[in-house]
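Q: Focus on the chain.
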Amino acid sequence: MPLTLRLPNGRGYMRRHDIENILRYLYSLQCVEIVGMSNVGKSALMRLLAQPDVWIQELGEAAHEFLPVYIDCNRILDLTEQGFCELVLRCLQEADPELAGLPELVNAYETLVAPASDFQVPLSFSRGLNAALQESKRKLVLVFDEFDDPYMNVDARVFLNLRAVQDRHSTRLAFVTAAGRPLMALNQDRRHGEFAELFSHRTWYLAPLTRSDTEQQVRGYMTAFEAPFVAADIDFVYQWSGGHPRMVDGVCRILHRALEERERDLSNPMDRWNFHQQLGSRLRSDDYLTRECSKIWAECTDAEQTELAGLSLADHEADPAVVAELLRRHLLNRVEGRPQIFCRLLAEFVQRRTAPTPTENTTLWVDTASGEVLINGTPIEALTALEYKLMLLLFQNREKIVDKYQIVTNVWGESYIDEVDDARIEKLISRLRQKIEADSSSPRFLTTVRGRGYKLVLE
């Protein structure tokens, strides 16, 4: 189901915080670049920014001074200077009937489509864009969606041309771009950099949907597909998806299908909780959700991938600069003071991606794909949520000592530091031993290092 940021019954739209801040820049004709991870909703936001009634709702009568023009760079017929320029002039004519009939713009477009020489391409583009600016009674805001490929691959001349036109008409023209990385990082060529300077200090990092907006998307799914979700289901969707729109849709689909297949009533909260726990393995193995995680992972640099993989390791030394960038891009959130991957689906994908494979001699293993703990290849009794968190922490730090502070912050959370005492930790350790050890009084795998903590030994 494609993401729409419109809310039903005329109640406005999602991403209100993003819209308000971006329009504040555009009202002053300051160029803005929108940066976000794969499929986080950049295109839906850009389409919203190009709708005049959104401007009217936010700016009132002042909105009539502006003409937003949506330019989907996926519509470029040929990834060249000519192809890019042709699309811009075509979208200008499509956006406004007055511009569509403007002779200077029409002639410039026709010359650009079939130029007698390469020199005519930038000349016709400048002539057409300048004609639109001079003739239009409104200020132009060009909204460039899917800007990554043209900015990385099209000759810098077209962007220098855009920069020159904006310099000449700075009180009449502004640009908005949407890409996966800031323009300065996408293309470090000096000539491209002159265009990127237009966006200096106005990079808007797009976060996943808020909890409230996620609920609106889920309720849209419920209406469209008559899904009988309850409040606990919406919480479940948000926990696993973190508000990533595509993941929200994927989790809703799997949850809905599982509810249709269920054999018992789930009105009891504990039954619903157990149902959600069992659904985890289907989410981890779903191809659609895995592809979404793979796209986000592939966009990360090697240093960022290393940082994401090392979050749960006891001896990992974080790189503050990389962590700061991941926080800016909203791949990480701070939870109780600690950086944490923004959603459970991606966190478990990273664990699976970076986990080693068991050797022939390994007797204990955690299958992060299924969430099962295996002893000699056979799954043990299902673990509770706290037991699994502890098991995963020990497994990720196998053969290393994990102290009590690490256990509390990773299993319960940093806010519980003063609440979880030694007895409570030891009780959880004891429960886990009863499930993984043949003789819990003489542990083979989960050993105590007196005065220092605990260690998981696999072989």
